[in-house]
Amino acid sequence: MQVKAQTYEPGYIELERKGILKERVEILKQILSDCTLCPRNCHVNRYSGKKGKCRVGSEIIISGVHPHFGEEPCLVGSHGSGTIFFASCNMNCIYCQNYEISRFKVGEIINVSTLADSMLYLQRLGCHNINLVTPTHYVPQIVEAIWIAVKKGLKVPIVYNCGGYESVETLKLLEGIVDIYMPDIKYSDNANGLRYSGVPDYWDVVRPAVKEMWRQVGDLEISDGIAVKGLLVRHLVLPNNIAGSAKVFEFIANEISKDTYVNIMAQYRPYFNAFLKPELARRITVQEYREAIKLAHQFGLRRIELSPWF
């Protein structure tokens, strides 16, 4: 069903009316004492200052709050995507372009109330959504901030912008809170997930995670040029077919939906430690990118966004 972007009501508003949002906050906060938020299942008590693979305790570290005009056009619109960059990550991609944030945790420690105020600030600027970048390890604090902010008038869609390495159990607790899921699907091979991102089961994890996201929100709905609800998948083409694009597109087409909005990304650069892997130590070629596009069409994907560089 299509709705006017300006009249769309995010699901978290209804959850707050019913008292469900507060219940979700309490459930998620309990998880921090024995953390299983992501598939790492570190089982550490983050309230006691212990840290698992994400390298953060119960504090919130953000590195930026601002309108972002470099995201997908349907998120950016005329006033930008209201981006909040969270520090650290539950993955360890050796080519991460934001490695200062993801690896070195460059940012500022804030509390939940400040995070809520940041969301409201972005809304006042006219941003079309709240774009949570690398939110996985902060889900309890984020949901609590949404709960605080909705009582002060928050009413724009929530975008969950993640690496795809997500726990289905945690995603279920986000149902009705997240309006737009925007996962990466980085690899179609577990071995490459381990070699290049430090997780041993990426392909096994990302598929049920994306299925759960789609179950909750369906195909991406765009009204008046602005995305309001649904799934948007990003796939970064890597040199030497390291991403395994064919299997990624086959999975999306056959197990999710041929109407999935897929951004085939060409902006790979050998950042951070990528130069240590010769097979990653270069940009992709025009031919590699065109081959990825060809594969997406062969599997019947109908909503493809292309990079402007090619």
UniProtKB/TrEMBL annotation:
What residues bind [4Fe-4S] cluster, as annotated? 89, 93, 96
Query: What residue stretches are annotated with the Radical SAM core domain?
Result: 84-207
Q: Which UniProt keywords apply?
A: Iron, Iron-sulfur, Lyase, Metal-binding, Pyruvate, S-adenosyl-L-methionine
Give the domain of life: Bacteria
Pfam families linked: Radical_SAM
Instruction: Name the InterPro entries for this protein.
Output: Aldolase_TIM, MJ0674-like, Pyrv-formate_lyase-activ_prd, rSAM, rSAM_sf
Question: Bound how, and how many: what does the cofactor note say?
Answer: Binds 1 [4Fe-4S] cluster. The cluster is coordinated with 3 cysteines and an exchangeable S-adenosyl-L-methionine.
* One Gene Ontology term of the molecular function aspect: lyase activity
Per its UniProt record, the required cofactor names are: [4Fe-4S] cluster
Q: Which CDD domains match?
A: Radical_SAM (cd01335)
Indicate what this protein is called per its UniProt record: Putative pyruvate formate lyase activating enzyme
What organism is listed for this UniProt entry? Candidatus Chryseopegocella kryptomonas
Q: What is the lineage of its organism?
A: Bacteria, Pseudomonadati, Candidatus Kryptoniota, Candidatus Chryseopegocella
